[in-house]
Each structure stands twice: as structure tokens, then as C-alpha cells.
Amino acid sequence: MRTKTFTAALILGALCALFHHTPLHAQHETASDLLDGETAFKASCANCHGPDGDQIQGIDIGRGRLRRPMTDAELVQTILTGIPNTPMPATQMSPAQASQVVAYLRARWASISATTLVGDAARGKTLFDTKGDCASCHRVQGAGSGLGPDLTTIGAARTAAELQRALTDPNAQVQPQDRYYRVTLNDGTQVEGRLLSHDTFSVHLLDSNQRLRAFSKADLREAAFITSPMPSYATTLTAQELTDLVSYLSSLRTR
Amino acid sequence: MRARVFLAMTLAAAALSAQAQSPVSFERILHADSEPHNWLSYSVTPFNQRYSGLTQITPANVKGLQQQWIWQARSLEKFETTPLVVDGVMYTVEAPNNIVALDATTGRPFWTFTHTPAPEARPCCGRVNRGLAILGNTLYMATIDALLIAVDARSGQLLWKTTVANAAERYAMTAPPLIVEDKVIVGVGGGDNPIRGFIAAHDAASGKELWRFYTIPGPGEPGHDTWSGDSWKTGGTGVWNAGAYDPETRLVYFGTGNPAPDWDGSKRLGDNLYSDSVVALDVNTGKLKWHYQFTPHDELDYDSTQVPVLADIQYRGQPRKVMLWANRNGVMYVLDRVTGEFLAGKPYVKANWLDGFDAKGRPNRVKFPSAEGTLIYPHVHGGTNWAPPAFSPRTGLFYVASWENSASTAIAGQFPKAATANNQQTAMGQTNLIPFFNNDTEPFGVVRAYDPQTLNPKWEFRLSDITWGGTLVTASDLVFSGGRDGYFLALDGNTGALLWKASVGGQINAGAMSYSVNGKQYIAIAAGNSLFAYALP
Fold this sequence. Notes:
Distance between the termini of chain B: 40 Å
Largest interface: A-B, 15 and 20 residues
Helix content of chain B: under 10%
CATH architecture of chain B: 8 Propeller
Strand content of chain A: 5-15%
Radius of gyration of chain A: 21 Å
Shape of chain A: globular
Strand order of the largest sheet of chain B: 1-7-6-5-4
CATH topology of chain B: Methanol Dehydrogenase, Chain A
Oligomer: heterodimer
Number of helices of chain B: 3
CATH superfamily of the largest domain in chain A: Cytochrome c-like domain
Order of helices and strands of chain A: HHHHHEEHHEEEEEH
């Protein structure tokens, strides 16, 4: 797997020009519509097209590379009815949901830079194991630490853009189950770890030594979320290295 | 449908372990506070104060409470039932609609009455039941397939059943019936669907319907013009929680549910009476005496199906017969239950949909669903939902378990969106605990004691997670409550101090109750899929 490049800015430009005169329902879409569209995309379309939309040969619906220019109405119809004699099936979406998916895709296309670098997954794996030191916190196919999220299938769960952001701004979006927590005991001892659960009286962590720890809140002086220990690679990796690493992570899709 | 009698647990055995059982007259129900060893209706008496007169367990000794028994339901549905106890025999419901008689000292079953609801039964929010009623030697249960069933409390045998509404039309019943004299009074739920809600009184002996009050006025009736077009025919307004009764006013009181369709008010223009209201009905005729609408033209599913709590108190210097109401819409009310007069209203949790009331108590609404989404407090599930609150005539405080700091994003014509991750985890209560990750910016549960004079909280006990549990208060000023994080708590009713807790391993979706047998006081609570009983050693 590799990250596809879109040096083909001309193609995108042409697509944008084509779409420019066919404004969709965009004026009417709310942020919630786009979120709903993204949810529906991930729940349905991504199963075949992949989270980046680039898993079907010859098209990349994540970046607007279609077999031919299509209006919003045509896209909605395709989602609803599928394409006969191809693997593209009809979906169970309502027209409104299909419109939300199209709106999400349009917004996504509009945000993609035309100057994305080419990534190399093999180089990315080397970075993962060496300069990035990623395995000191993350595990892939059973190798590495369990302190951070297991990345064995991260490529199936996250888009390249999401992975890029996680590398450069790791606190921008942390899944609830991956949030870091620090407790300070009454004697001043501090313990940090991934919050597994908490309730009115207790806190449960996987601490930085990968031990399951339970604390009574009565024994704690302080307890609070803290920022992720994940470092930002925005300055420690070059743009090319980041792209390579994203390319490797995107390739991690099956166990 | 059939009754199962356990061979090894005959009525003879019941007689050995239980106190002598005598028929439960309506006078006994009305004055159930005079026999606090029993629990004869959903919240003790038809005043619904959920105040137990028992005093063996006190703030000084409550830390010694020990688990006495657990009864496990063979059901994965939410356990929302408050049991009844009559002279040592406990009656509860195994969801959806099996009645179980237990030895209240051991939790061992005497018999199980099995009712398999019709496949047409499709209640909106869980195949649940909140409790039974008893009169004489007969138990009454309202079922999710909209039947009213009468069962012999001694043998578990079916006496009669009657169809209250058509389950195929999405009617369903989940609430404990209200007994008044020789009547069994029930409401029909299903108001998120295109039903026309109603309250009906049935003859306790035969099941025959005696009167029916539609919660949506028909043509020619006052209030009919608060529904545009034909929307009144399908305007929902179900009734799915316990009612109250005052023998002096001879009025029964019920809270009503949201108008339907829930989210699209454009299809039902107007105030939509008597949705989201309390209605006071003449017990003999079912005629409406007064109403108060908490949320006119509701578009956020703010059902007013909370349990009406009646109290006779000194209010602003005068003796007054009031009704206390912590509403799903985030506002707490004091109403005169004789006249329906609005006496006071005040948000008791964060609520931004109104900025006050006019002189008659009509709320001034300032937040509306919009195309882009409007953040509205409280959440669609409310400041509190259906769980029963408590009132102590000793402390004069009103004890409410609620959700604080909860909100929804209301989008015109659509199901509201959760504003935070914590809300997203909520679906009218789950039976099992779930990992919980929230932080202080998200909703949390809280048990508070409110002074009805001011509607200000005197104290609060904060929970990490939200709560679907109710409250119980005892004559020794103990408050029992719990929440979604699976702890059952005893709090000091005067200060809110935590005095005892037990981890029950499943979330609490019910109100606690208390009873005694052979001089021993018990506290019982449903949690997860089980019923727990505690007592001092």
C-alpha cells in the first residue's frame, strides 16, 4: 500500500472547475450534516472504498478522482442505486443521507492540497522502528508496547489526513479510551497512565509500566486528564518523512 | 400465558416465613404510612412521597448495612421496577411482564406468573415495567402489549385480563397502575408514535373500563384548537408513569408525555394541549378539573411523565396543599394541587430554553431548534426523566436525582444530536456498566435536596456519571439513591454526607424501597438485572 500522490493537480483543477458550476446543496448543509455524511461514509462507503476512498482501482473518491465528472444529483443517485454490473451496490441510505455523504466528500475534496508528497511505506516502517521510536508506545502485529493505542489496523480506521494530524498535533483529537490521566496520591506520589474507567469513587488506569492500577478517589489529592505523552513530529521529522510514516500507517489494515 | 407454581415453594411455606397476610384494602393503601413495614404502592401512598416511616437503620448505624440476598431476573431488559411488600411477601416484575412473588426475607421465589407479550408490542424505549399495584388479594399489571392483567396475589393465577389499547397501533404500558377505591387507573404510553394518548379507569373486580380521558382534546372540546389540522389524531401525549391521588380533592393527577411527532413541531402547530402537562381528573368521572402545561409546543421530547409528589406544607407562611415537580425540562415547580395555580418555577439544573414565566406560569421560551443546530439545556433526556423522587415531611426537603450540565443540539425536524460524548453513551439506561471516560465539561449525575420554599438546593452529592435512579427517604433522615456507575448510596438527608455505599455491579435504573419483616428493616434496590436487599446484621 502506498499513499497516492496528487501531483495531478491538473486533474483536480479540472474536477473543481467542473463542479464549480454545479453547486450542491452546499449552501444548506450544516456542520452536523457534514459530520453525518462522514459517519455514513465510514460506516458504508469505506467498507469497499477504504477510509481514504482510494481502495478501488482507477478511482479515488477521497480526493475527487472519479471515472468521469459527476453532478451532485448523479453522485446521490449512484449511492442510492449502485452501478449495475459492477461491485458497487445499492445502499440502504435515504436520499438525505446520500446527500450528506456527497456534501462530506465535496468538503473533503476542497480541503485537500494539490501538492501532497509521495509517500513510501517501506521507508515509513523504518522510521517507525528507528527515528520515530513509535514501538516504545505502540504495538503492531503483537510487537511493541501496549501503552498507546494498538496500530495493527490503524490504516483501516483512520484516514491519511487523520494520521498526519495525529503525528503533528497529537492532542488535537484523542479518542476517549486513549486519554491520559494523572493521579496524585495523598502522599504526593504521582501515577500516570491511560484512563480505563472511573466512577464516583474509583479510578482505573493502565500505568506507564503497563500495570493495571485501581485507586480510591479518597486516597487521591488530585486526579485530572493530562496531555498525551505522544510527541509531535512536526519538527523532528521532515515533510517527506512524515509522508512516508503516514504511508506506512495507512498500509496497516489487517491482522 | 400461564402461572407457574413452584412445587417446593407452596403457599404453606409462604405462611411459615411471612407474616399473616390480609387483603389490602384501599384504606390501607391510602394510609400506608401507618404500616411502614409494608410497601403497598409504587411510592408508598398515593401521595408518592417515597417516604418510609421505618427507623431501625439510622445515620449512626447505616455503615453496618449488609447484603441479605440477591434475586436475579432471567431477563436482560432494564430493571426499573419498585417492588411491593405485603406482610413479608415481595411482588416484583421480571421484565417485560412476569410477576414474581418472593419471600422478602430470603429472596426465594414463591411463584412466577408468566406473561409473554404479543409480538406487536414495540415500546419505544425498552421492554420494561416500573411496578405493580395491589388491592384486596389481587395484583394488577399494565403490560407492554397494552393489557391490564389481574393476578391472584396468593396463588399467582390469572384472574382476568383486558385490552386497554391496541399494541399494533404502538400503544404500550409500562407504568404501575394507580388504585383509587374500587378503580384501577392506567395510562397508555407510546407517545413517540402517532397514537392519541389517554388515561382510563377500570373496575378492579372485572376489568371493565369505567371512564377514559383523552390527553388530546377532540373536536369541540376546550384545547382542541391547540393542534393544527388533524394533528390531534396522532399527537402522541402518552402517559407512562405513576399517578397520584388526593382523597380530599378527589382528584387523580397524572403527568403527560411529549407531543408527536417529537421533533417536527411544524406538523402540529399550537401549544398541543395537554402534552407535557399535569392533568387533574375527577376520580368518579375522569373529567378534567385543571391542567398546567410545563412545556407548550415541545420540540425536545420533554415528557412530563414524572411522578407527581403531593405534600401538605407551610408554604410562604400558609398551610397549602401543593404538588412538587422536578420536570424533564430542567425546571422545578410548586403547584397548588387544589386549583392548579402556578406558585413557583425555577431551573434546578442548567436550563437555557426559557428565561422566566408570565404571571400565570407560562414559560417564556427563548431557544428553538434551528437548521444549523441550537445548543439547548437540558439534554433531550432531561434534568430528570421518569425516576421517582422523594419528599420527607420530617426534613421538609424534596430529594431529586438528576442530570446536571447536559445539553442537546436541536436541529429543526431532526432527532437532536448529543452535545457531548457522555450523552452519546446514553440510551434510556443500559443494564450493564460501560467504561466511562468523561471529564468535568460533560454532564454528571447529582442527588440534591431542595427546599420547596425557595427551590434552592440545601445540599448535593455529586456522581461521576449521570443517573437513571430515583430516591428514597426514611424517617431516620436517610436518603438512598444511586446512578449509572453502579453504586447504591446512603446519604444523610440533612447534609448530603455519604454514609454508606455498595457496588452493585450494574447501573441503577429504579427507585429504592424499604420494608420490614419480623422487626428487621430492609432496603431493596434493583440494579443491572438483579434485585438487592440490605439490612443490619
